[in-house]
Structure formats: C-alpha cells, structure tokens
Automatic annotation (TrEMBL):
Taxonomic source organism: Littorina saxatilis
Keyword Magnesium: yes
Record keywords: Isomerase, Magnesium, Metal-binding, Phosphoprotein
Gene Ontology annotations of biological process type: carbohydrate metabolic process; purine ribonucleoside salvage
Protein name (Swiss-Prot/TrEMBL): Phosphoglucomutase-2
GO molecular function, one term: magnesium ion binding
Length: 603
C-alpha cells in the first residue's frame, strides 16, 4: 500500500504480511498508522519478535503485532495447538477440548476463536458461555475426559495484559516437552486460515457444547467431599467479607459456601462483578497487601467481620486477612496459609481415615515455599514432595502419585496458591475460600482465631518465618552479571561461604546443576539453564532462594528462617534475626546500588 513504507525492506515485508493476514480492523489500523508514521523502532518491537509460548502458555500486553495478544496471534496459537494435539492425541476428535475465559477485554472473543479453529478441524469443544474461574477448566478436562483445555486469562496481571493458559488431558498445566511441541507447531501454522475468523460456527455447530451446568454441579459435588463439619459450620455465626477483585469468583464462591453450609459472605459490592478496567485497584492482585484489600478492610470494619477472604480475578488464588485484638489487620502470607491449610487437611483427613498408612499420604510444595509441610511430615508420618516453582510441577507430581495409588491431600506455593485434594489439579481459590472459612468457623466457635491457630502450629513444629520480595531489573545482562558474581564471589571461582556474619552451609544452583549438599554434587530437582535460581542454606537454619521471574522483570528472593529450638529464640528474636539476614542478602548478594536494581518498596 502506498505511503506505508518505513525504508527497511525486511520490516516493510513484515508490515505487509500483517496487513494481508489480519482481519481485525482495529489492529490492522494500529500497524498501518505506525508504518505511516515511520515508527520503525516500535514496529520492530511488535513484528520482529513473537511472544514466547512456554509452560505457562502465553501472557503479554494486548495490542497489534506478533509480540502481543490480539486476534491474529490467537488464531495462530489455536491453529498450532490444534495441529499438535491432532498428532499427539488423535482421539481428540472424540474427546474434545475445553475452553474457558475470564472477564478481561477480549477473553471471550479469543476463547470463541480458539473453539472455531477446533470445530473447523472436526474437534468437538466444551466452550463455557459465561466467565468462569480458571479451576473450572482444569476440573472440566478430567470430568469430560477431554484431550486438553485452555483458559483465556492473565490472572492478576495489569488490565493491559491477557494470556492463554494450556492444560493437558490429565487436567494439569503443560510441561516440557509438550510446550516445546506446541510452540513449534504454532510456527509451522502461522498463516491464518480464512475460516478461523468466522466465530459464528460456535453458535451453529453440533460440535460445540456449553459445559457449564454439568461442570458446575459436578465441581460442587467434588468440593463438598472436602467439607468436614457441614452440620456445625454456621454455629459460630462467623461471617466473612469477600472480594472477587473485579474478577469472576463471586457467584462460584457463594455456591461453595452453600455447599459447606457456611454463613454467606458479605461482598465488597464495588469489586464483585467482572470489570476488565479494574477501577478500584492499581494491581488486581490480593497478594499486594493492604493496598489491594483497602475496600475489603473498610467493609469488614464497617460490618464487624473479623476475616476477609479474597480471590484474584480468575479465582485461582486465595488471600486471607484477620483483624487482631489491637485493631490491626493481619494479611496472612502464602506460607502462613500453607501451614494453616496443610494442618487442617491433615487433621481433618486423619479423623475420618485413622487407619490409612501415612506412607500413602502426600503433601507437596514448591522449592521456594515454606518447608513447614516437610516438618509436619516428619512429625506425623505422611510423605512430602518438593517440586520446582509453579503449580504445573506440583499438579503433575500429584497426578504421578495418584497413578501410583497414593493420596495427595494438599499442595501449595507461597504466591497464595492452594490445591486442597485432587479434584482440581491446579491451584483453586474457590474451594480454598470455603475450606479456610470452615476452618475459621470451627476455631471461632471455640473462641480461637486463625492467628492463634498459627501460633499453635509453630509451637508444635517450630517457627517457619518467611520474608519474600523482589528487585526490579529490565536489563538481562545486569541480571546475568549478578548471578555470575554469586558463582564467582570475590573473583575466587567459588560460591560465597558467608553472607555478612552468617555462615552458609550449602549451595544449590538449579541453573548450572550444582548442589554442594549432595554426595555427587548434583541437585535432585530438574535443572534449567533458561532461568537463574540459586538456593543458600545457612548454618543457623535459614534458607534463601534467589531466582528470576519467567513473566516479569523481577529478581525475586524467598527466605525462611527455622531457628534451632535449642537456641531459645522467641518469635520476636527470630524475626529480628531473619530481618538482619535479609538485609545482608540485599546488600551483599543483590548489590542494588552497584547494579542499579530497584527494590519493590521503591517501585
């Protein structure tokens, strides 16, 4: 087209191809306008690189171009996924594929586009016709015996983002080599088929079915199996405040509360309906603390409710806060909730199943999460498994254990993700909301609280105190330099032996494949050279992990202090020691001033 040349023949060819292939007038105009304005740098950013399809599927900003989420990249992704599944599991033409979506901009359209590509290839689809929580897709795959499933969501990311999360036939998120196979298949099927754009087929085709009614009924029946005190759950008169964070969770949490015979939650009305603009929160992530829970805290104070329960926008995560006697609100960390829910699942299950051998019962946590489940296991006799970071690893480990005839009671990650039982092989904020409220109801009925119960757990298993945060760094070379300096501390070719005054007893590097605590110096967990991750174990019982984020420009740190009980540290003293360890890690390992890193508190 005349007037759109940038002067760069290769870039102009990419522009021309985009304009030929894209059938969305808005994104076509976006690229055309950039070309007419000769915005070569912006066009290069958008067209010369593609979103990377990985074990989390896709997640990126919405906009025109190969590096962003838009109709055409969704058509291409769906075409690649379908062709891969047809080869990997030909029975998909009988089994079908599940599609769900959240309340973000374009989520419903992209689920329909994906379903259209399936139907055009003779594959039946289970397409939710209303917004649903992410756990409903994971649940429905196994319930309907589907070959795989997709949830269109960016979870708790900013409103400008969206994503495409893929699950395999076991109901767990995909892992390698499936992700690599799908990624290659996308590249092999980039040219959009004309029929892929016409989503009217999802209304007219016999291959398209809405799974909502059956899936919803089956999910509630499954969740009810995790209810242990239905007859007395409303006896404490406890009511909680609930926020969906402008997401999809509210109607589903209401039904789970009814299934548990809990008193109905008091909603934060401004946040219970799906709203892709997220008007009342800067970041729609309850993990961000009191800022994200500001309206919920106000509602709880106004109504006299002592507990707040919150989901993120796609309702797969759970946050909980409790009002202390001082009037302050305590927001439980993911590790603290992991301790509470792990304890509840064990005690409740054991009462109903006193004769099941402990060796057949498992709990799981990611390597950056608290090791309190491991400590519980050593006391109580059940088994504990540690996995890499991310629920895809925990869910697939749970599936593996189930196939061996084992019972998996619970899994969690410190980023407020909890899997109670194995009805859903993924984190599930809907069931976890009902379960933690049942726990609280039983505690409040006997004049106790979640905070008091946590102290009881620590009294039984020892303190497991955590401090987690991150630094922001947009330069990959700087990140690489920081980690290489840790591997060559002081130019001596060795990992550090001290961090300030604190002696390090062992080092595990899952990037290079080194673990000083193992006889052969090789780690038990899988190694990945594509990400940075080093764990330091200190002589005083503290464990610290530094790792890069796969989806954000962050270098994260996770610390947990498990002081030796014989040293007689009370909680306050242990917390002070942990704070000093973290400060030394920031100063000596991150070196923020030297490397120009931005701390979370300054961002």
């Amino acid at each position: 087209m005349a007037g759109i040349g940038t002067g760069d023949s290769e870039l102009d060819a990419l522009v021309q191809q985009w304009l030929e292939w894209d059938k969305n007038d808005f994104t076509r105009q976006e690229i055309m306008s950039l070309a007419q304005a000769k915005k070569s740098q912006e066009l290069e950013k958008r067209l010369e690189t593609r979103m990377e399809f990985g074990t989390a599927g896709l997640r990126a900003r919405m906009g025109a171009g190969n590096s962003m989420m838009n109709d055409m990249t969704i058509v291409q992704t769906a075409q690649g996924l379908v062709q891969y599944v047809l080869k990997a599991n030909p029975a998909v033409k009988q089994k079908g594929i599940v599609f769900g979506y959240d309340g973000r901009h374009r989520s419903d359209k992209w689920a329909k586009i994906s379903a259209t590509v399936c139907i055009n290839n003779g594959i039946p689809v289970y397409l939710f016709t209303r917004t649903c929580p992410t756990p409903y897709v994971a649940f429905s795959i196994r319930h309907f015996g589907a070959a795989c499933g997709v949830m269109v969501t960016a979870s708790h990311n900013p409103k400008e983002d969206n994503g495409y999360k893929v699950y395999w036939e076991n109901g767990a998120q995909i892992v390698s080599p499936i992700d690599k196979g799908i990624a290659q298949s996308i590249l092999d099927n980039l040219e959009p088929q004309r029929a892929s754009w016409d989503t009217s087929v999802v209304v007219n085709s016999q291959l398209c079915k809405d799974p909502y009614d059956e899936a919803h009924k089956a999910y509630l029946a499954a969740v009810t199996s995790l209810c242990y005190h239905r007859d007395t759950n409303n006896s404490s008169k406890l009511r909680v405040v609930y926020t969906a964070m402008h997401g999809v969770g509210y109607p589903y949490v209401l039904e789970s509360f009814r299934a548990f015979n809990l008193n109905m939650p008091i909603p934060v009305k401004e946040q219970i309906e799906p709203d892709p603009e997220f008007p009342t929160v800067t970041y729609p992530n309850p993990e961000e603390g009191k800022g994200a829970l500001k309206l919920a805290i106000k509602k709880a104070n106004d109504t006299g409710c002592p507990i707040i329960v919150a989901n993120d926008p796609d309702a797969d995560r759970l946050a909980v806060a409790e009002k202390l006697p001082s009037g302050e609100w305590k927001i439980f960390s993911g590790n603290e909730l992991g301790a509470l829910l792990g304890n509840w699942m064990w005690v409740s299950y054991r009462k109903q199943n006193p004769t099941v051998p402990g060796g057949d019962i498992y709990m799981i946590a990611s390597t950056v999460s608290s090791k309190i489940l491991n400590t519980m296991a050593s006391y109580e006799g059940f088994k504990f498994e540690e996995t890499l970071t991310g629920f895809k690893w925990m869910a697939n480990k749970a599936d593996e254990l189930q196939k061996q005839g084992k019972t998996v009671l619970f899994a969690f990650e410190e980023a407020i993700g909890f899997m109670c039982g194995t009805n859903v092989l993924d984190k599930d904020g809907v069931s976890a909301a009902a379960i933690i409220t049942e726990y609280a109801s039983q505690l409040y009925a006997r004049n106790s609280t979640l905070e008091k119960e946590l102290e009881t757990i620590y009294g039984r298993y020892g303190y497991h105190l955590s401090s987690n945060s991150y630094f922001i760094c947009h330069d990959s070379a700087t990140i690489a330099r920081m980690f290489e300096e840790l591997r060559n501390m002081g130019g001596r070719g060795k990992y550090p032996e001290f961090c300030g005054p604190y002696k390090i007893s062992s080092v595990r590097d899952l990037t290079t494949g080194y673990d000083s605590s193992q006889p052969d110096k090789k780690p038990l967990l899988p190694v990945s050279k594509s990400s940075q991750m080093i764990t330091f174990t200190f002589e005083n019982g503290c464990v610290a992990t530094l790792r890069t984020s796969g989806t954000e420009p962050k270098i994260k740190y996770y610390t947990e202090h498990r002081p030796d009980p014989s040293k007689g540290l009370d909680r306050a003293a242990a917390e002070r020691e942990l704070e000093d360890i973290v400060n030394n890690i920031k100063k000596n390992f991150f070196q923020p001033e030297k490397l120009g890193l931005i701390s979370r508190s300054d961002s």
